[in-house]
Specification:
By secondary structure, the chain is of the alpha+beta class. The chain has four domains: 167 residues, no CATH class; 31 residues, no CATH class; 119 residues, CBS-domain (Roll); 80 residues, Uridine Diphospho-n-acetylenolpyruvylglucosamine Reductase, domain 3, CATH 3.30.465. The protein has 15 helices and twelve strands.
C-alpha cells in the first residue's frame, strides 16, 4: 500500500476492524440466545438461578433483544464496508494503469475492496462466530448475558428508526404494518419439521402427527365421519334385545335410534344404559325410546377443532352429521377426531380392516371410501377431480355403471391400474391399486 503521510487511510482501516469485531459479537450474541433451550433455562430459573432468570428474560424478549442484535450485526457490517472502501479504494485503484481512466480505476478499486470485505465478513464476522456461539451457547450466554443486553440496547435506536421508516412506507401503500408481524406460517413450521426429520431429531410418526394437528383446524367433520351407509342403527320401535344384538354384531357402544329411516335420527342408545336389564326377566319388551338419550347434531362443514372443543365441553362422545338438506350424512365420534391426529386406534374388540394397506412398493389395497387426496399422496400421482370425493366414486364414474357383487372390473388412470376386489350393497368396498411402470418416449413401458 502506498504511504499515506496524512494518515487518512489508517483511521478507516482501524474503524473497519472495530466494526468487524462488533459484528462478530452481535452475530455470536444473537446465535447463542437463539440456540438456547428455553425449557432448560426456565427450569434453572425456577430452581433459583440468578443468571438463568436474567437470561430467561432475554430469551422471552425476542422483539427487544434478539431483533436488535440482528440489526446491530447489519449496521456494523454496513459501516465496516463503508470504512473499508474508503480506506482501500485509492490504493487498489493505483494498481491499475492510467490508461483506464481515473473514474473507472476508483470504481474498480471500490468493487474489489467491497468483495474482499464481504468474503472476510462472511467468514470471520458471521459464519465463524455463529458456529462457535452455537457450540458454546450455554457458557457464552450465561457468562456474558449482561454484555449481550448492552449490545442489544446499543442497536435499539437503529432498529426503531428503520422500523419507523418501513412502517411509514407500508402505510403509504395502505398496508397495515401490524398485519405483517413475524407470525410463523404453517408452511414454515412444516419446513422446520421436515428439516428436523432429515437430521434425525424428529421421527416420521411425529412429523405426521404435527401435520395432522395443523390440518385439524381446516378439516371438516364430513371428511372424517362414518358415512350413513356404514351406520349401525335401530328403529325407534325396536326393543332392548334388538339393540343388544346389534351392538354385539357391530361391536359398538352407542347406537343411533331413528324414526322410519336413517334421515330421522331421534336419539342415541348407550349400551351401558342397558346393563340394569342384564339377567332381569322383563314382563314385556322394553322399547328403546325409554332408554335413548338426546342426539347431538352438527353440520358436515363444522371444523374438527371446533367440534372437538364442543364435544368435550358437552361431554358427548358421538354426534350425528347433517347435510345441507337436513338429512343424515353420517356420524362422528370423539375417537374419530383423535384418530385424525394420532392415526387409527384399535382396541381388543376392534376387527377393522385397514383403510389403506401397502402390499408392496407399487401395490395397495384400499377402501372405496378412501379420499382422492389420500390416494394421490399415497401413489404420488395427480388423480382427476370430479363430482366425487372418494376413489370408489372415481372408479364408478370411469366405469359408467355400478358393478354387481362378484364382478371385478378394472380401470387405468394417471399411471395407476385400479381393480375392484369387493362390492357390497352397490358400493365399491375394496380396491386394488397398482402403480404402472412409466412409459418411455417410444410409448413402451420401462422396466423398473
Amino acid at each position: 500500500m502506498p504511504e499515506d503521510p496524512d494518515g487518512t487511510a489508517v483511521i478507516p482501516i482501524i474503524l473497519t476492524v472495530i466494526f468487524m469485531l462488533l459484528s462478530a459479537l452481535y452475530a455470536a450474541g444473537a446465535s447463542a440466545v437463539s440456540a438456547l433451550s428455553v425449557s432448560q433455562v426456565k427450569r434453572e430459573a425456577d430452581s433459583g438461578g440468578r443468571r438463568a432468570k436474567a437470561l430467561l428474560k432475554i430469551i422471552e424478549a425476542q422483539e427487544t433483544v434478539v431483533s436488535p442484535l440482528q440489526s446491530g450485526l447489519l449496521l456494523c457490517g454496513l459501516l465496516g464496508l463503508a470504512c473499508c472502501i474508503t480506506a482501500l479504494q485509492r490504493p487498489i485503484a493505483s494498481l491499475f494503469p492510467d490508461t483506464i481512466g481515473a473514474g473507472l480505476r476508483l470504481a474498480l478499486g471500490s468493487l474489489l475492496a467491497a468483495l474482499g470485505y464481504i468474503v472476510l465478513f462472511f467468514l470471520l464476522c458471521d459464519l465463524l462466530p455463529k458456529k462457535a456461539a452455537r457450540h458454546w451457547a450455554k457458557s457464552f450466554a450465561y457468562g456474558h448475558h449482561k454484555f449481550i443486553k448492552r449490545l442489544s440496547g446499543a442497536a435499539m435506536p437503529f432498529l426503531a428508526a428503520t422500523k419507523a421508516i418501513v412502517n411509514g412506507i407500508l402505510r403509504l401503500l395502505r398496508i397495515d404494518p401490524h398485519s405483517l408481524e413475524d407470525a410463523v406460517t404453517e408452511e414454515e413450521i412444516m419446513q422446520m419439521v421436515g428439516e428436523g426429520e432429515e437430521k434425525g431429531v424428529i421421527e416420521e410418526t411425529e412429523k405426521d402427527m404435527i401435520a395432522n394437528i395443523l390440518d385439524f383446524n381446516d378439516t371438516a367433520a364430513g371428511e372424517i365421519m362414518t358415512h350413513r351407509t356404514d351406520i349401525a342403527a335401530v328403529s325407534d320401535d325396536s326393543d332392548v334385545t334388538q339393540v343388544v344384538a346389534l351392538a354385539l354384531e357391530h361391536g359398538c357402544s352407542r347406537v343411533p335410534v331413528y324414526h322410519e329411516d336413517i334421515d330421522s335420527v331421534v336419539g342415541i342408545c348407550y349400551v351401558k344404559d342397558l346393563l340394569p336389564y342384564v339377567g332381569v326377566t322383563l314382563p314385556k319388551a322394553v322399547s328403546v325410546t325409554r332408554l335413548m338419550r338426546p342426539a347431538y347434531f352438527i353440520p358436515e362443514t363444522k371444523k374438527c377443532s371446533q367440534l372437538f372443543t364442543e364435544m368435550t365441553e358437552r361431554k358427548v362422545q358421538i354426534a350425528i352429521v347433517v347435510d345441507e338438506y337436513g338429512g343424515t350424512a353420517g356420524l362422528i365420534t370423539l375417537e374419530d377426531l383423535v384418530e385424525s391426529i394420532v392415526g387409527n386406534i384399535q382396541d381388543e374388540y376392534d376387527n377393522e380392516t385397514e383403510e389403506i394397506h401397502r402390499v408392496s412398493e407399487t401395490e395397495f389395497t384400499v377402501d372405496g371410501t378412501a379420499s382422492i387426496d389420500e390416494i394421490s399422496d399415497l401413489t404420488e400421482t395427480e388423480l382427476p377431480e370430479g363430482n366425487y370425493d372418494t376413489i370408489g366414486g372415481l372408479v364408478t364414474e370411469m366405469l359408467g355403471y355400478i358393478p354387481k357383487e362378484g364382478e371385478q372390473p378394472q380401470v387405468e388412470v394417471a399411471g395407476l391400474s385400479i381393480k375392484v376386489l369387493e362390492v357390497e350393497d352397490r358400493r365399491l368396498y375394496r380396491l386394488l391399486i397398482i402403480k404402472l411402470p412409466p412409459i418411455d418416449e417410444d410409448g413402451e413401458k420401462e422396466d423398473e
